[in-house]
Amino acid sequence: MQPAQVFKYPSDYLYDPTYEWGNNVAFDPFWLVFPTFGPMTAALIQTQTVNIPNDSDFECRRLHFHVDAAGAQLTVATAVIPNITILINDSGSGRNLMNAAAPIATVCESEAFAARNMMWPKIFTRNSTISITLTNFDAAVATNNIRIIMAGRKIYSAS
Questions:
Q1: CATH code of 151's domain
Q2: According to the model, what pLDDT value does residue 141 have?
């Protein structure tokens, strides 16, 4: 006799990166690189945008950030985790991707730490604009420069 099943995940609960796209769809690896934020002095709020190319949709799999302290080179042992929040907006859907700004290290990954995929990839439609707003909540005067990169793939018609 088998034990009673307490719960069951719905079929779309766990992400499995396979799709039924059809035969006329192709993919290319792609990185969306935002203009540099900075210098991010204390209490500064800065917004940068990128446009999704008009030849394809973009599936974001990872969010990365790179920080330098006033342009100085860093090593993994001295990796900076900035006191900065991030808020992401997708003009294609017309909504924020989060209900409130969150610390950048909880949303994006740094090259100083192990890479990880997002829990669920986000597909941005062609010709849409992605806006990222960073807010520095550091009490000290910091002059960090921040670079945000979205890693994923283009999804386009192969015909």
A1: 2.60.120
A2: 67
Q: Which domain holds residue 123?
A: 25-157
d(CA 76, CA 128): 35
3-state secondary structure of 99: coil
Read off the pLDDT of residues 114-138 as tens digits, 9 standing for 90 and up: 677 788 889 999 999 999 999 999 8
Give the C-alpha distances (Å, rounded to integers) separating 42 from 83, 115, 134, 138, 143. 9, 28, 12, 6, 8
Is 19 within the bounds of a domain?
A: no
Paired with 129 in beta bridges are 51
Q: Per-residue pLDDT for 4 more than 80?
A: no
- Integer angstrom CA distances of residue 70 from 5, 41, 65, 90: 56, 10, 16, 30
DSSP 22: -
CA gap 45, 146 in Å, rounded: 12
What type of residue is 51? N
Question: Where residue 49 falls among pLDDT bands split at 50, 70, 90?
Answer: very high
Residues in the chain: 159
Q: Which residues pair with 85 in a beta bridge?
A: 103, 135
Domain count, the chain: 1
The predicted structure's pLDDT at residue 19: 57
